[in-house]
Structures are given as structure tokens and as C-alpha cells.
Amino acid sequence: MTAPILFLLVDAIPWDLAREVWAEGGMPGFREPRPVVSVFPSLTHVAVASLLRGVFDERPPGYEARWYDPTDGRIRGGFSDPESEGPMAHFRARPHGLLGHLGVYFLRGLLAQGQIRWITHRFRREGGPWLGYLAATDGVGHFSGRPGLARAFRDVCAQLRTLREEQARRIGTLPEVVLCSDHGMAFGTLGHLAAKELETRLEAAGFRPGAMGPDGVALVPYGDVGGGVVYAHPERAAQVAEAVASAPGVDVAFGRSPGGALAFGQRGPMTRARLRWRDGLYRYEAETGDPLGYLPVWEALARAGRLADGWVEDEHLFAATWSHAYPDALARVRHGLEDLVEKPAPVLFSMGDDCTYGPALTHAGARLLGGQLGTHGGLSRAQSLGFAACTDAGSDPWPATPALRPEQVLRPWGDRVRAAARPS
After folding, report:
1. DSSP H helical segments within 205-288, as ranges?
2. Chain mean position to CA 291
3. Helix (H) or strand (E) holding 2
4. Residues 6+ apart with CB under 8 A from 421
5. Alpha helices in 97-235 (DSSP H)
6. Any residues with CB less than 8 A from the CB of 406 and at least 6 apart, and which?
7. Whose CA is closest to 284, among 264, 310, 258?
8. Please, what is the Cα angle at 330 between 396 and 230, to 5 degrees?
9. Interior angle at CA 231, CA 245 and CA 341, nearest 5
10. pTM higher than 0.85, yes or no?
11. Residue 405: what pLDDT?
């Protein structure tokens, strides 16, 4: 008899928090949590979609529910637009519409408890396989900080323990559980860069916000988060990225260029590096300074004999950088600029861990809730490392892998995940 199986994504749980709960005995029956390097920007919409990409072949139209269509210069989508749902539609217990998403933040604690109880109740009733998404923990992380998020995650794990014990008594076998998160969180006191301020800076640099053509730029701010994108003419992407990198709170910005991208970071004077990629190979060339701090990585790869004319294979670069201050940066930037979404932007940027970016109105709303204590969306280790763990049933599904990319998490259970996503 095949044991019932629950696939559960718990939003915004960092790897270090999951490992802490596991080490204290809060995840009985689970293998040690494995780090999962999120996509970039590490925003929920694309991060959730990337977890499903190992099973389902689809991409969301944009990086979040609102997205820009460069063919006609219009901003489309939104929380009430079914077109923006994309891979999120596979999940049971996900937010629906504007009110559902507001509930994730205004009723975060109660909603998190309600969502895990609803998911476990339906799993008991339906049996497995079952695919669930607990969204409200994202709001807990943003507004209750790490202590609040730790409490919420411990409650989730306790509910899962009770579920497994009850099911074992009822059907004679322990259900399997695959538990994962979509990204990490950076915690602390957060500054803010308003989208209007960035727009004004781009205008001062000679660009035309809201216009199309060679000098046109379009911002699609998604909320009060740790990263963002700019739509611009491909030939001006590098100049736009450099202007963005000069804005207060921006840590590093990337502009698409032939064969790769240019990275800019303001470390006193502006620093610049060229990122190159072809097929499964990558190259990093620090031109003025080292905005990503990857020169020591390249030196270590050279000493290990991993370079060929300065190029390194993808698997070796991932192994060398998954725990870096900017984990797996070259591959994540590549996919963010090329194929993470249907309508990719030619400019991506990451805020520092102590600053967010978004509309002034969203930031004002966040302050009414007491102000944010955590954020995600950026390229940094804190905002990037989620986790994956599974109950100890049989062989390790991720053998000899110190860390995972999102598409690797659910792939070992492909047929069962597809079955779990079907309407009941």
C-alpha cells in the first residue's frame, strides 16, 4: 500500500529557521532540512512557480500579479485578474482576489492557523496525494518578524505531527510529507525607497518614465519588498541599471547586455562587473571593483581546476556559491532576465537587507500595521535561502546534494504532485 502524501509549501520560511526547529526536535520524522536557493527576484509569485517547474511546464506572465506588456506599453494583471494566477492555481488554500491577499497581512496570525487546519482537515478527508500552500506565513514574517514566524512554523510542524499520528492510528501507516518554502527573509529595521523617488532619479538621468521608445522606462512596483525590475529599451538596459544602482538603498542592479549582463553596485565609487553565459557555462569579469564579491570564488575555482579559459560549468558554480552572500547569482540573474517569466524585464535590482522598495502608498499601509520587520525579493543569502524537507521514508530523494534549486524539490514525486494538483 502506498502511503498518502502531503506536499505543503509554507511561505517565507528561511532555511536557518527550519533547521533550528528541526534541531530542537520540532520536526519529528523529517530528514534534516536542505537549503533551497530561490529565484531572483525572490518574490512569492515567481518563487512558487519555480518550485512547480520541476513538474509543470508553465511560467507566470510577470514577476508578480501586476506585470508589464512591452508590446503595447500597458501594465496588466492584478490580484483580481485570473490571468495573473498562473502556477498559483495548482495550490489548494491559496489567497483569492484582493481581499484574500489583504487577509494574508491584516489577519496573518489567525489566517496562518486557519490555513494549516484547513489543509490538514482536507488531507484527512480526501487522503493523498494533496498539494497545499500556506500563504499567511509570509505576512507573519513581514510584520511579526522572526520570533512570530518561528512560532507560526512551530505550530505548522505540530499540526503535521498530530496529522501523521492520527492517520497512522486510523489507516495503519504514517503519511509522507514533503515540506518546503519559496524564499528566505531578511529581518530588522527597514528603510524604504519609494518607486516615485526611483522614477525621479531615472528621469534626471535622461529617461522618460511611462513612455515607450529608446528613452522610455516603466516601473511595476509590486509592494514593499527587497527587489524590483525596470522595463526599458534593451539597448539602454545597462545605462538604466547604473542609474538604478545609484539610488539610496539599492545594493546591486543588473542590465541585460549581449551574451549576459552588467552588474552595478555602489560601494563608494560605482563598481561594475560583466556576467557572461552560454549554454551551461558562466564567466565573471570584474571591470571596476567587484560588486558581487565573486572574484575570490573565481580564484578558488581556478585553483580547483574548474575553469576553462575563465569559464565554469553551471553545476560547479552552484556548488561553489549556494552559500555565498549572493547565492548562485549568475544563474539566477540569467533566468530572471531571460526565461523566469513570459515578459522578462531587461533590468533587475536588489535592495540591501535593510531597505525595501515599492509604492509610497503600500509603504504607508505597512506603517499602519506597525511597520515591516522582514522582507524578501532581493539577491542576498538571507532573502534567498528557503528550505525543503521530507519525512524519512526510504532513500534520500535528493542524494549527495548539499543544496537545491527550486525545480529540483518536487521533481522526485512528479506523478504524485500532478495527481495532488487535480481538483478533488
Report:
1. 237-245
2. 21
3. none
4. 56, 90, 91, 131
5. 97-106, 108-126, 136-171, 195-204
6. 36, 37, 38, 39, 47, 50, 51, 53, 54, 182
7. 310
8. 120
9. 110
10. yes
11. 98
